[in-house]
Sequence to fold (133 residues):
Amino acid sequence: MSILQYIVGGLILALAVVLVFLVSKQQGKRKGLENVISGQTSSNSYLNKTEAAKKGKKFEKWTVICAVAFGVLVIALYSITAISKNVEANNKNNSSAATSSTATSSTVSNISVDTSSEASEDVSVEESDEESK
Fold:
């Protein structure tokens, strides 16, 4: 794995921890029955309600931002991994193609040498047949 893959993986891990924290700090939408069962009393002042709403909106905003960043980083890591695999495969194919072309050219030169020697033998055999007639 490349260094870039490790960096993006670390960022994904950090964002996952932040997302868990942000989601756990958010309050639920329903507060009525939960407060009665747990014995909590809620203050109905306007100031407490607006502060809670502002705080809830902040957590929602940061949760959405972190979730989008998390998704983008996951796609980026997948793309980086796919590109690095393609580059490795191309390098592997290029090195094997170079080896194959070298072997092919030496085989072709051997064939041409062999063919020329067979042709000269055929010519000498034909000349000896003509001389014997």
Summary: Residues 3-27+47-99 form one domain. The chain has a mean pLDDT of 74.
